[in-house]
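This part of the workshop introduces the protein records we will be handling. To make this concrete, we reproduce a full record directly below:
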Amino acid sequence: MPESDCRTVQGRLLWRAPDGEFGLVRPDDGAAADLLVHCSDMVTDPPEAESAEGDVVLYELFTDARGPRARSVRRRH
């Protein structure tokens, strides 16, 4: 199944694993379920830009064979 078009949306980083490998993002619109995000999908350049629990984030929301996904998660400035 090909990837659907993606769109940039805003949400909040609810949780981040102690090792930083995974995080959980809640979309602001409330219509979508929380999204589990791998660290490879989080933007941390520069390192000070790393998102922490509670931060408002922007990310690309898309759908693939596994369902809704988030990538390019970055802290909103």
